[in-house]
Each structure stands twice: as structure tokens, then as C-alpha cells.
Design brief:
Blueprint: H1 2-16, E1 25-27, E2 30-32, E3 38-42, E4 46-51, E5 57-62, E6 68-70, E7 72-76, E8 79-83, E9 89-91, E10 96-100, H2 103-107, E11 113-117, E12 130-131, E13 143-146, E14 150-155, E15 161-166, E16 171-178, E17 183-186, E18 190-193, E19 202-206, E20 211-219, E21 222-227, E22 237-241, E23 245-247, E24 253-256, E25 260-263, E26 268-271, E27 276-283, E28 286-291, E29 294-299, E30 303-304, E31 326-329, E32 332-338, E33 341-343, E34 350-355, E35 359-364, E36 367-372, E37 380-385, E38 388-403, E39 406-414, E40 419-421, E41 425-429, E42 432-437
Antiparallel strand pairs: 1-2, 3-6, 3-10, 4-5, 7-8, 8-9, 11-12, 11-16, 13-14, 14-15, 16-20, 17-20, 17-23, 18-19, 20-21, 21-22, 24-27, 24-30, 25-26, 27-28, 28-29, 31-32, 31-42, 32-33, 33-34, 34-35, 35-36, 36-37, 37-38, 38-39, 39-40, 40-41, 41-42
Length: 438
């Protein structure tokens, strides 16, 4: 009975302290611990110092050949400093023998390691720069290979590939946490940082109340966010302390006024007239909404505070009307030649159209559009382009729509993004936009 009781104690102790089951990590003849960057010894007895909170200094003498762990490294002004435990710091000299722990060993202590540049010397990589795998998070990232050091590859916007090695001593490792991709606002004025590190490259100063969208990544106490914008800011990524951000509460229910694509970071969603959504925030001509746990950007004018009207249903007068004599698309003049046909001298371009009991049929320069009757939101659309068949649908019917050619009624927006004005034809087609008509 006694041996069973002892066995039970052992089991309980294991469950209460599961970390004890992890094997110690050994390297270069000594145990390595989480957060350790390297180890050092001294060629002679040396006095080391640390600065106390009250401004005074404490010192201790370290003995020759004694082994000490290094937890952090500073590099600036062509000098290197090693931080020991208990806050003691020493400058690298001939008296110091330092050995770095390989990066792959250091990263093995983390479930999802993130790598931050801590070298303030040189211009190749800014202090605080965050290296993360491009396949894991949104935005520009890297293909990483972790060995003794870090190797990275980066596909630039100009088509060239940037790559290189970063010494393990230039990197701090921090646990990366996956976060929601919600909308957050600043609780105080703050600079947006280029990386998750205090003192890192600072960009624009943002005022209290500014809203951002989380990119689902928290590291080193910072949240990576996207600056909300509709022009010029769409690809601006910043880091802010988590303590300065709070989730944005919804501003109430809204209704989708017409079919529209909700643009999310990871996916798009077809939104239909009458869909009920929650408004999060607005900026310029855009709004950010929440639906079924996802966040999407839509045009601000696609939202209504009350239930919108029914969608128009088009049964007649869909194709170009008989009074039209001329249509101009990007400098090409299409003259009416016969009933249901316009022709342009340039490239033998033409517009042709006809109606059956089941469909409206419109062809422009070899691209054929077939609209099922009646034309309404969600009704079927078929496009034949370059011999390829595209199945689509009517996303929206706008009561009015204004372009450079004028204001049109009941404009049909197709699922491929093209627009058709009943009585006129394509407003935005493969040959360009309608510029004028007679």
C-alpha cells in the first residue's frame, strides 16, 4: 500500500509541475535557459557594474574563467555591451570571451518565435525591424531559415529578391501571439513604430482616438496594425504597445443598400441588399463593418441606417435605345449603322445587340454578354470573352449612377465589376468607359 501511495504523490507532483518533464537543453558543456543569448568568461578578474533605480551604482568582482550567462546585447557607436543576470553590464574587450548560443537552439524555447533586430549599428536593418514568415501573417514578410544565424529572402515590389544572413547576436527572440483582426483605437497620442521595440524607427505621430485594424500578430508587447485608409495609406503597417490600444465597439446596425463586395484581409465576401451588418468605423469614402465574425471594408454609401428599398427589376428597355446615334469610348467613335448595331472605323470595332424572350444580348468588340430576364440583383449573367465562358451574376442595380458621361438610372453592376446602363450600354467595359453619347 505504501508504494502505491508514493507513486500517487509522484503523479500529482508531475501534473502540478508539467514543466519539470522538459529535458534540459545542453550546449557547449552547459545548460542553456530561455532568453539566454550567449555565455562569457573572463581572462582575468574583472569588476562589473550595474546602475540602480535610485541612480547609484553597484559593483561586483567576477573571477577569471568563471562562466556567466548573457541575456541581452547592445550594439551602438561601434561598441558592444553584454548584459548579465541581475542587471550587470560589461563592454566587450579583450578581457571578455563571448560565445553566442546558436539561433535555432535559442528559438527552441518558444512555441512561435519572432525575431527582432537589436543592432543599432549600420543602415542595412533598422533597430526594431521584425522578421517574420510571410506565409503566416498579412503584409510583407520573409522566407526564413533558422540555423546558427538567420537567413532570409524577400521578394521586393520591383521583382528583385533581397536576401542575406543576420547574426544571431543581432536578434532578440520574443514569443509571437496570434490575435484577432479587429478594429482598435489609440487611448493616447503615440508614434507608430516600424517594429515591435521601444526606441525603434518611429513614423507618423497618431492622435488619441485614431483607429487601426489588427493584423493578427502580437509580439514583445506590441500589436501589429494596419492604418485604415482609402488612398495612400492602404499599405502602411505599424506597431503600437498593446497597452495603448482598445477594441472599437460597434456603432450599431446598418443595412446593405445594394450588392457589394466586402473586402477583408484574408477573404472577400459577397454582400447582398438587405444584409444586416454592424458598423465599426468610417474614414473618407470607406466604412469597416463586422459580419459573422469577419471584418470587411465597403463603400460608405453602400450602408443604410434603415432597411433599403427593394431592388429594381428590369424587364424592358434594357438595350441601347433607338434614339442613340453615337457612342464614344476612349476616343473611338461608334456610329449607328443599322438597327441594333454601332460601328467604329478604328480596328473594325462594333457594338451589336438583340433581345429574346429569355435574355438580353449585348456584344462589344467580340465580347458577348447575356443577361437572363428579368434583370434583378442575383440574376444570371454569362460573358464570352476570347472564346472563354464566364458565369456571373448581377451584383447590384443602382437607382442612379454618375460617371463622366452623365448620370444614369438603374445601372447594373456585374459580378466582374463592369457596369451597364439600360438604354445606353456598357459604362465600363473591356474597351474602356463611355465618354459621351448622342
Amino acid at each position: 500500500m505504501r508504494k502505491y501511495f508514493i507513486a500517487l504523490i509522484v503523479i500529482v507532483a508531475f501534473l502540478a509541475n508539467p514543466s519539470s518533464s522538459k529535458a534540459e537543453v545542453q550546449w557547449d558543456g552547459a545548460q542553456v535557459v530561455k532568453g539566454q543569448t550567449g555565455k562569457m568568461t573572463f581572462t582575468k578578474d574583472v569588476k562589473v557594474y550595474k546602475k540602480n533605480a535610485n541612480g547609484t551604482y553597484s559593483s561586483m568582482t567576477v573571477k577569471r574563467n568563471n562562466y556567466f550567462r548573457v541575456y541581452d546585447i547592445e550594439k551602438y557607436n561601434n561598441q558592444t555591451y553584454y548584459w548579465m543576470s541581475s542587471g550587470y553590464r560589461i563592454q566587450a574587450t579583450d578581457l571578455v570571451v563571448f560565445k553566442k548560443v546558436p539561433l535555432n537552439i535559442r528559438s527552441s524555447f518558444y512555441d512561435n518565435p519572432g525575431y527582432i533586430n537589436i543592432n543599432r549599428q549600420g543602415d542595412e536593418h533598422i533597430y526594431g525591424k521584425h522578421f517574420f514568415d510571410r506565409f503566416e501573417y498579412i503584409g510583407p514578410g520573409y522566407d526564413l531559415s533558422i540555423g546558427e544565424n538567420l537567413y532570409y529572402e524577400y521578394s521586393r515590389g520591383d521583382g528583385l529578391t533581397e536576401d542575406g544572413y543576420i547574426d544571431a547576436t543581432d536578434l532578440r527572440i520574443a514569443e509571437t501571439k496570434k490575435r484577432d483582426e479587429g478594429i482598435y483605437k489609440l487611448t493616447a497620442d503615440a508614434y507608430g513604430l516600424g517594429g515591435p521595440m521601444a526606441g525603434g524607427n518611429a513614423g507618423t505621430k497618431y492622435l488619441k482616438g485614431t483607429v487601426f485594424q489588427s493584423l493578427g500578430l502580437e509580439i514583445n508587447g506590441y500589436l501589429r496594425v494596419h492604418v485604415l485608409g482609402t488612398s495612400g495609406e492602404d499599405f502602411t503597417f505599424r506597431y503600437f504597445p498593446v497597452t495603448l490600444l482598445q477594441p472599437v465597439q460597434t456603432q450599431g446596425k446598418r443595412y446593405i443598400r445594394y450588392g457589394v463586395i466586402g473586402k477583408g484581409y484574408r477573404e472577400q465576401k459577397e454582400l447582398k441588399r438587405f444584409d444586416e451588418v454592424s458598423l465599426l468605423t468610417e474614414k473618407n469614402a470607406a466604412a469597416w463593418i463586422e459580419l459573422d465574425g469577419g471584418i470587411y471594408q465597403v463603400p460608405k454609401n453602400a450602408l443604410a441606417t434603415i432597411m433599403p428599398n427593394e431592388s429594381p427589376i428590369i424587364t424592358t428597355s434594357f438595350l441601347p435605345n433607338d434614339t442613340l446615334q453615337q457612342l464614344v469610348y476612349w476616343g473611338s467613335v461608334y456610329q449607328k449603322t443599322t438597327n441594333n448595331r454601332f460601328e467604329a472605323q478604328k480596328n473594325n470595332w462594333f457594338i451589336d445587340y438583340y433581345e429574346t424572350e429569355q435574355t438580353f444580348n449585348y456584344e462589344m468588340n467580340g465580347t458577348k454578354y447575356t443577361f437572363d430576364k428579368p434583370v434583378t440583383e442575383g440574376s444570371k449573367l454569362t460573358v464570352m470573352r476570347y472564346g472563354m465562358k464566364e458565369e456571373g451574376f448581377v451584383r447590384a442595380i443602382h437607382y442612379t449612377f454618375t460617371t463622366g458621361a452623365g448620370t444614369f438610372n438603374n445601372v447594373v453592376e456585374m459580378s466582374n465589376g463592369e457596369l451597364f446602363a439600360p438604354g445606353f450600354g456598357l459604362l465600363d467595359g473591356s474597351s474602356g468607359s463611355l465618354m459621351s453619347y448622342k
